[in-house]
Amino acid sequence: MSVITTKVALAAAMLTAFAAPAFAAKTLVYCSEGSPENFTPALNTTGTSFDAARPVYNQLVEFERGSTKVVPGLAESWTVSDDGKEITFKLRKGVKFHSGVNGFTPTRDFNADDVIFTFDRMWKPDNPYHKVTGGAYDYFNDMGMPDLLASIDKIDDHTVKFTLKEPNAPMLANLAMDFATVHSKEYADFLLKKGAPEQFDQIPVGTGPFSFVAYQKDAVIRYKANPAYFEGKPALDNLVYAITPDPTARYAKLKKGECHVMIAPNPADIAGMKTDPAVNLLSQPGLNIAYWAFNVEKPPFDKKEVRQAFNMAIDKAAIIKDVYQGAGQGAINPIPPTIWSYNKDVKDYPYDPEKAKKMLADAGVKTPLDIDLWWMPVQRPYNPNAKRIAEMMQSDLAKLGVNAKLVSYEWGEYRKRMQEGEHMTGQLGWTGDNGDPDNFFFLLGCPAARKGGQNLAKWCNKDFDALIEKAKTISDTAERTKLYEQAQVIVKEDAPWFTIAHSVVYEPTRKEVVDYKVSPFGRHEFYGVDLK
Amino acid sequence: MAEETAIDDPMPTGPAQLVLDSASDGAIGVAQPSSIAAIAAAETVPPEITPLRAFWSAFSENRGAVLGLMVVIFIAVLAIFAPLIAPHAPAEQFRQFVRQPPVWAGGTWAFPFGTDALGRDVLSRLIYGARISLGIGLSVMLVSVALGIVLGLAAAFMRGIVEVVVMRIMDLVVAIPSLVLAILVVAVLGPSLLNTIVAVTVVYLPRYVRLVRAAAIAELSKEYVVAAQVAGVGKIRLMFVTVLPNCLAPLIVQAALGISDAILEAAALGFLGLGAQPPTPEWGAMLADSREFIRSAPWIVTLPGLAILVTVVAINLMGDGLRDALDPKLRRS
Amino acid sequence: MLRFFFRRVALTLPTFVALMFVTFVAVRLVPGDPIEARTGERGIAPERLAMLRHELGLDRPVWQQFLDYANGLLHGDFGVSIVTKTPVLHEFLVLFPATLELSICALIFAVVLGVPAGVLAAVKRGSVFDHTVMTAALAGYSMPIFWWGLLLIMFMSEYLGLTPVSGRMDLINYYFEPVTGFMLIDSLLSDQEGAFGAAVAHLILPSIVLGTIPLAVIARMTRSSMLEVLGEDYVRTARAKGLSPLRVVGLHALRNALIPVVTVIGLQTGTLLAGAVLTETIFAWPGVGKWLIESIARRDYPALQGGIMLISAIVILVNLIVDLLYVAINPRIRHG
């Protein structure tokens, strides 16, 4: 009896494998890594949640697919006043919102009220939606919007003016970020009347190329094409996110055709993907940096020579080869080479354990020296395996007579303790949000070096700080570039960090996927993608 | 699972039956004195040699058990003499030989089982890993047995509130799925080897407590205990000297099988990244660390799993043999 | 019987209360903070952290939080997940059918294979078949199932291409709204050709992995229980009377031998739910096991508390039912 059951089951399996029903509709399955928290990007901080909301929504201005360039979105055009304090957006006309799966039907097109509502929700505590779904608008606050914004005014139905308290060069790029996603005020009012405002963040209604169909936690998210999309109906009829946390399983699914695009492959599988006939391996240098910070408040790391010696002690090439396994390039500067103002002339420290040993001795460091080396317990876009890197560093340091004790904490706790400066040395990294160099350099600035700040080396160099502070207020890119180039020279010389790597984002897609583009921000976008 | 539930269920089987069947298997470690005189005799002249030999002859009849014992001894020797046997240090990284295949798949004899993602010798790590895994298994077993005896006897002897509290706590522990509880304990205490041991002990404690209690209660109603009580034997002495030895057989069996369960549970924790921390070569952690290589370098993943499987099978074989030899009731199974 | 019933039920009540208390306290002893855990590299300003903690009520005295929680529980309110802001009970009810479906299939797999194997092994005691079954059972009983799952995926799905890799459904070809949450039933209700087959195909590997240990336990238990019964006088008598061996085994022995097996099957619930944690992690199975693990990582107190409470309640209830059934089948106990 049992044998028969197994046979039937196997037969059923083969049936689905070989005799799948023919479908006219084009369905693209994307193997994503986790469940979104909800579908309102303003409330979230993770790429997973942003990716889940992105098919449904638009922003006023947007990043061009596959690049960091800011292009028009819901705003057709914009003008910046001479003093840089006023940005006026001309809104696109005739943009339709989706119908919600909960019975909502829009009666009007997108207009200025929706923009005002979107920002009021994050900004004004008296907005009826301010407290809905926890009301933690992390990005809005982190990007300094409450301090920056003076007012947002509706000039007419299709014109909106942002007034700033001071000029801010990265403002436009900020508005292209996911948190600035534009919602429907009419939908919000509809739900308020219905007495179910929490649905606003669970059942998304937007203007985007796909409309939301269904979400089953930890299993699947479904979208269908929005035929009325303002840039034209998408080539795909259905878009499906298959939530698959394990990268090995994701690749296995891709191989079998159970999904077409997958996020974050195992570095170990990349070599195999390159030769896999079913797979098109796309890549793009990531907008990120992984670093190992030396806490300059803890001796012996207060000495520049010691930090330099540690820079020479680690075999960076081996880390790139064995941990990143090709999916990364050794980092020299604290910003990735894809960002403007990257200084090509800065030279990295050579791997030279003998010299490092001598420098340590010259600096008066007695061996064996006991230090701690912190590694984060989670995989990050810029660092596939901090633990393995830590183990390699530990082994390299042992050759210098340095005993590194590996330390880790739960992820939130880890970052907090590092910001408090409890570590001697520790790994972390950063992923760029908007492509502006300041978005990276502030990590080494003096304001961030305070206790609890994000400067984990607690390194405050007055010359460096003066340069980046000055660069922030100038709008001329060439001038800013010069300042940032100097800043990079100082960082290398003073060595608060051992710059580990910039990861390369690899995204395997199946051969039948047409025109998929890898985003330097690690976004996943499916408008403009087709299936052969 | 089958074993401890069979003993824990309200039916007074198990130890009580030992006597009835022991005749068919010759005398076994479970002496059943029926008078005070016999107790006195048992205490002054412990009948060590005969029962041991009888046990061994019963045990050695079972070829599987002997095989299991041999494998366990082999692994124990590897663990004890790891520094002498292992070809390399477990944490030494051979950067030029990263992810070398094992010798049967085209590798070299320098690294018979290949190397891992950091160029560490897999064979050496497995050998050192035996220390960790057996260490975890033994520590969990010893602590649980000790605590199980104390709590189980306390519950059996004091009855009343002590029994209710102890047994309700044990019910509570059993109600939470073992791995979830272990994870919760590790999450509270932080991941480390020691805390793995604590977590696994907490999870497996109830079966020992319940077993000791059930066996002790069964013994308590026997004549020799009543007689000892009448003769004025103190409570502590009654608990540990009079009753305990007669509850030992099922406990020993449970303890042996408990080692293998503890190893599996600890490996599962290691697999979820909550066990031993780097560069400790714990088998479960080795497996978790190298999971990504299942396609490109399968030996790094397969070998630690195989090591866990072989060790656990060997211990279980041995445990089965122990049970057969010590517990004739279950002999026929 | 009735007295026994009430006694057992009464005994579970304090367990529930203690469970509530212990989960509440344990969850809060876990270092870290649900808000900190989700902020990433960016971190969070202390003022905003304080504000958000206040909004979640995390800054109030723990005893007050506990009273609120207990009060909520009495009204069937398990609180709201900190991460997703949806009610914990709702999340549990969405995810639990997946776990239940997998557990039932695993148990069916274990029983359907384990009982006949155990019976045959007992009848043909000492044969090659017996030894094979017992060796396999021993290996199954000793299996690190997380490793076993990985190997099976590699071999069955990737190398042989027979089974799907992970998930519950073929997402490219089929789509239907969940009605019951059980994919097997929903796929039948959907009336889409092949959907049921796809659902079955997705269940095969996870069921095998989750069913491995129960299979081994059941096979061993059946064999030993069967051997015991076969040795009993009445079976010997039946044999001596010249009844056909099939009749003896099938009619007389099996019925009695299965009593302890049924208990063991019932008691596998805990094992299954614990195993589900690993199996769901490996197969991207959207069930409660994986959900609990993630809740720990995210310090999602309400989800964690509620999840542990609900799962434990199920284990307690099933054990209670098994106990009662056992008493019902086996009248000897009532006198004990």
Major β-sheet profile of chain A: 7 strands, mixed
User: What is the 3D shape of chain A?
Assistant: globular
As an assembly, this protein is heterotrimer
Tally the helices of chain B: what do you get? 14
Largest sheet of chain B: none
Percent of residues of chain A in beta strands?
A: 15-25%
Characteristic terms for this protein:
heterotrimer, A: 532 residues, alpha+beta, seven-stranded mixed sheet, five-stranded mixed sheet, 17 helices, disordered N terminus, C: 336 residues, mainly alpha, globular
Could you characterize the architecture of this molecule?
The complex is a heterotrimer of chains A (about 525), B (about 325) and C (about 325). Chain A is an alpha+beta fold and about 525 residues long. Chain A is about 30% helix and about 20% strand. Chain A has helices at about 1-20, 45-55, 110-125, 140, 145-150, 170-175, 185-195, 245-255, 270-275, 305-315, 315-325, 355-360, 385-400, 410-420, 440, 460-475, 475-495, and strands spanning about 25-30, 60-65, 70, 75-80, 85-90, 150-155, 160-165, 210-215, 220-225, 240-245, 260, 280-285, 290-295, 330, 370-375, 400-405, 425-430, 495-510, 515, 530. Chain A is globular. The two termini of chain A are about 45 Å apart. Chain B has about 325 residues and is mainly alpha-helical. Helices cover about 70% and strands about 0% of the residues of chain B. Mean pLDDT of chain B is about 80; it is low at about 1-45. Chain C has about 325 residues and is mostly helical. Chain C contains 14 helices and no strands. Chain C has helices at about 1-30, 45-55, 60-75, 90-125, 130-140, 145-160, 185-190, 195-230, 235-240, 245-265, 270-285, 290-300, 300-330, 330-335. In chain C, α6 (about 145-160) crosses α8 and α8 (about 195-230) runs antiparallel to α11. Chain C is globular and about 85 Å long. Classes of the chains: A alpha+beta (about 525), B mainly alpha (about 325), C mainly alpha (about 325).
